[in-house]
Amino acid sequence: MIPTPPAGTVPGNASGGASADRLLLDLAVSDVRQHVYCPRIPYFRLGARLPHRYVTGAMQEGILEHQRTEALEQRRGLRAYGLSDGERSFDVRLRSERLALGGRLDMLISRSSEAIPVEFKNTRAALGLHHKYQLAAYALLAEEQLARPARRAFVYFIPLKHAQVVEITSAVRAYTKRVLNAIRASVAGEQMPDGTRILERCRVCEFLPYCNDRW
Amino acid sequence: MYFASTEEQRWVQRGLLPDLRRQPVAEELRGWNWDRPPLRSIYDRPLGVYEVAGKYCPTGRDVFLRRVQQLKTVPNVGMREGQRLHRVVADVLTEAKRLIYVHGQASVPFLEALASGVRSRDEDDARPTEEDDLSATKVRAVRAFESRRIVERVEAVLARQPHIQADGLAMLALPVSVEMKLDGRFLGLSEHLAADGISFPDTAVLDLKFGLREPFHRLTTTGYALVLESLFERPVDVGCVVYARFMNGRIVVERDFHLIGDELRQMFVEERDEKVRLVAEELDPGLPAVCPRSCPYLRTCRPADQGRVEPLRGPMSANLVDAAQPEAVAAH
Prior knowledge:
The complex is a heterodimer.
Chain A: E1 27-28, H1 29-37, H2 40-47, H3 57-75, E2 87-96, E3 101-110, E4 115-121, H4 129-146, E5 152-157, E6 162-167, H5 170-188, H6 208-211
Parallel strand pairs in A: 1-3, 4-5
Antiparallel strand pairs in A: 2-3, 3-4, 5-6
Helix pairs in contact in A: 1-2, 1-4, 1-5, 2-5, 4-5
Chain B: H1 6-22, H2 49-53, H3 61-67, H4 77-103, H5 108-112, H6 114-117, H7 132-160, H8 166-173, E1 176-182, E2 193-199, E3 204-209, H9 218-232, E4 238-247, E5 250-259, H10 262-280, H11 298-301, H12 321-324
Parallel strand pairs in B: 3-4
Antiparallel strand pairs in B: 1-2, 2-3, 4-5
Helix pairs in contact in B: 4-7, 4-8, 7-8, 9-10
């Protein structure tokens, strides 16, 4: 069960823009993705304040691939997304004081009737739930920043040159907010959450030595 | 109670199901993947769906008291009433099917007599209590309502299909299986689960409530959908919580049709893991800030502290009926 954050101020890294009587711990969209992947990762970063993760060779390669894709995207049309019109912005900084949440989005497609967040992924693996809620968090931010609805988002799989839609339904929005609450509750309550049940993820996790209940 | 209106059917077919086709359920959250995480249970302490999905106690202490402390409670008024009404609905539907199989196309007069004729198992219980009069009135109202609906549906099928046989008539007119017993062991749940209803051929999970609407009620249909998927390896994507209430002597029915998508499935699994951990590790989760007045453990948890009890929001909730007829507990 995801705990409810206690009322009152959350000490530490509070959002300056939140209301004075309800300061929220500032979170990044990547925290949402990490929490769904393994709830302990954002706890280690925000609660236990463990050293920030280093950039591995694979991550560096991913960054370069993102940059190459971004350059190519500028020359491409929107056909991959099934769209006939829309204005693209790259590496967009999004922030919501209300949600105390921020992040950098790979690409944002602005249309007169909607905002469509797009994330590039350098993987052939199927869309994971952690990516789904990462996109949902971007959708919440884009919606607020552009003052227009975000009904859908896309993941663009770089190796496959294929875009997959993610519907931003009310249930998806609610679950994303639930994740934000859960991260804040675990930090505020100094309660290390249960780790992921998918233990193969632990083998390559930099935080494995801190868990002490994984093998 | 369980038969959707034309508008509701259209809502499911054109409102809900296209969403699902655009955004399929994550494979790891399908019940047939019960043998791997996240669906695989880490403890061998089976719980009922009502225990996992019931969040009347915000901390889950009711489950701790029942399973760890072995505390039995007396069902409250609302629970007893809900139990009776559930039985009436199930009994009327079962009796109607029996009449159709016995009399076939000639069953309509017999079905018309159902409203006054059939006696529910619960009505045979001679238990004169203070709430009996009111409860009996509601029982009669539910029985009459269900009977009329059944007659109407059977006549509609007969009008369209004059040569239909008994089995086809029962299937087309009453495509619901009530009190479906399911084995939930694959998902770390009880092997004697009982779903209020399963509708065919679309295999939607139905859950009947005679109390107030709560946001977590959809977890019940989600739990049964996961169990059905684990047993039959076919997708179950739609659930419906049926809310029945009494207003000015009439029955008002609201049906909450919903997709059983990734979010509900994840929430159910999170709840299951948390509650089964409380039981297996014998962890007392403590008291919530405010207790629901209808909780049968209220006197155990708060013998004197009535200040932290939620005020009544309406009639005593009958939603806790499931706790009065718990799915069987496997021996530990």
